[in-house]
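I keep forgetting this: the sequence line spells out the residues, with the fold written below as integer tokens. I include a record here:
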Amino acid sequence: MQNIVIMGGGVIGLSCAFELRKRGHSVTLLEIGQCGGQASGAAAGMLAPYSENLEEPDEFFHLCVDSLRLYPAWQAEIRHVSGQDFEYTNSGSLYAVYHEADILALEGRLLWQRAFGSSGSIVEGEELRRIEPGISSEVKAALHTPEESHIYAPHYVQALEQACRNTGVRIIENLESVSIVDWHRVQPGGAQAALQQHGQGMGQEPQRDQAQTPSREIAVRSKDGREFRAERLVVCSGAWAQELSGTIALPLPIYPIRGQICAYHNAEHTVRGMVFNNQGYVVAKDNGTVVCGASEDVAGFDTSVTEKGIDRLRKWNKRLFPSLEREIPFHRWAGLRPSTQDGRPLLGALEASEQIVFAAGHYRNGILLSPVTAKIVADVIDGLELPSYYPAFAPERFSHMVLR
């Protein structure tokens, strides 16, 4: 059993905490605000790796599909341990196109996706409208993927938090900032030294102090002066992880992307399932709503909703479902999606110090990737075999960049 501190209480941090505690480790989770308060609670909850990975079966696609396969058992365990219910719907999905020429591209995509677990098919005409009666007559065809699902993210994250608490994870919220103050670094050539640097972490401006006495433990400190020591630190702080760049002398290009979403009442069952096109998605939820997203822009850490962002959604969704033109969204919200420079998360232990394990930068796939991320992080810490694609997500892959 190891003593582990997790930095960040979103869906990734909570998932890692739950898996590690389940394996017998002592886990403390530190959150600068409230658990699930950023991208996690704002997500629409699609579990759709086939619809959202369009080009080829690269390492990221394999990571996403592995996570989808874990979901049935994972979500059942979270329900059981938490004692809380949440929507998990194996609705399947449609990826809609408007032009005959685009059907060939769908067929090409289906060809390679079938080799990786999809039982999809191209649907047109009456078959398409049997699945989605309200879909526009402009839609020529769609790729139907039965394996895809969706989840109601706010309730799922709440259940994850409760499952963590029920299994003995220590959760400390509203810390404002958390910084690494002491850690053990492997220098080139194998010599070890401790690097102690203060004042850099989640929600805090960077400043440097001189190296101090080496320590076998890693230490982090909150704004109120509390210090937490552990054998391992798991960094799950989303876009705030970039603030650790100076502390660990490693570029961490993770940036917040604002995703704006809106919801409609679905009293007339305008939408029955989950439908994608090249502009975004609409998905029908069990609570009688249709969620439409996501309009994205770069706005720093601003989570305000803009008319321009919501108008983008309304301009394309009425072409997909004409009846939405008559509807006004009753709810609008935004969340920050932590995106790395190459769109892939930072996942794994640092070469310079196995004390620090990263699980950050999941962009718009945090909900989908929560079970597989938790498994990989726990396998890293337990020294178990890792998937062949694991090196593609190495936190050091941006080390050629110049720190600013």
